[in-house]
Design goal:
Distance between the termini: 41 Å
Number of strands: 7
Bound molecules: S-adenosylmethionine
Order of helices and strands: HHHEHEHEHEHEHEE
CATH topology: Rossmann fold
Number of helices: 8
Radius of gyration: 17 Å
CATH class: Alpha Beta
Strand content: 15-25%
Oligomer: single chain
CATH architecture: 3-Layer(aba) Sandwich
Number of domains: 1
Shape: globular
Strand order of the largest sheet: 3-2-1-4-5-7-6
Length: 212
């Protein structure tokens, strides 16, 4: 059995992503430069399921892109809760608004445009769940910044932590700052005794980090 057959089977026997997300996905594939960056059907359903299970009241997403994952997490969150999501590229604003405004969960979503490193301290308060999915070079910096704002028992998720398998390459060129950023992050998380951690081999690697 081919891996793509297995993937098709998994999707056929999991929840559908729904009409809005499937339209977003198509729109991104036709009109955006890097549609592969969005979480997609399987990871989206998993993010929603995390929210169903953890029932977070306040979530932070670092790196909105199309808001695909934002919409999935909002779907799994209860009424009266809030997901803050930060996107540095304000050219994404029209795309994001087009889909967030059509979602029945839009009241739960607050999109911030700008650099996460500047916006996060201004948000204040504590988060029950954080999804790190922005510039791979700065994962460790996002983590250090956000860590004190995560409540004990809260969950940090970090996407792309296997980085297309490049994390296992013997020699990583010094110019490849993204791979080096992910490697440094993975080592840092492994050594951090304040958290329990496991890398899920899902899509491009999704690390679950639970704050003690
Ligand atoms: C992988 S995409 C996010 C995908 C989205 N979370 C999803 O799962 O569908 C990464 C996004 O992070 C944004 N980004 C990069 N650096 C950032 C920063 N310092 N602050 C906020 N957003 C940033 C990029 O512009 C890009 O849109």
């Amino acid at each position: 059995m081919e891996m793509s057959d297995v993937n098709d089977y998994i999707l056929a026997h999991s929840d559908n992503e729904g009409a809005l997300l499937s339209a977003l996905n198509r729109d991104a594939n036709v009109n955006l430069l890097y549609p592969r960056m969005l979480s997609g059907h399987l990871q989206g359903r998993i993010l929603k399921m995390f929210c169903r299970m953890l029932r977070p009241k306040r979530v932070l997403e670092i790196g909105t892109y199309t808001a695909y994952a934002t919409l999935c997490m909002a779907e799994g969150m209860e009424e009266g809760t809030k997901i803050h999501t930060i996107e540095i590229n304000d050219e994404m604003e029209d795309f994001i608004q087009k889909y967030v405004s059509q979602s029945p969960h839009r009241e739960k979503i607050e999109v911030h445009y700008g650099d996460a490193m500047e916006i996060i301290p201004k948000l204040g308060g504590t988060f029950d769940m954080v999804f790190i999915d922005a510039n791979k070079r700065f994962y460790s910096a996002y983590y250090d910044l956000v860590f004190p704002m995560v409540r004990p028992g809260g969950l940090i998720l970090a996407d792309n932590t296997l980085w297309d398998g490049k994390v296992t390459e013997e020699h990583v060129p010094s110019a490849d700052k993204q791979t080096l950023g992910i490697l440094a992050f993975n080592d840092k998380i492994k050594a951090d005794e304040r958290v329990e951690k496991v890398i899920l081999p899902l899509r491009d690697g999704l690390t679950m980090i639970w704050k003690k």
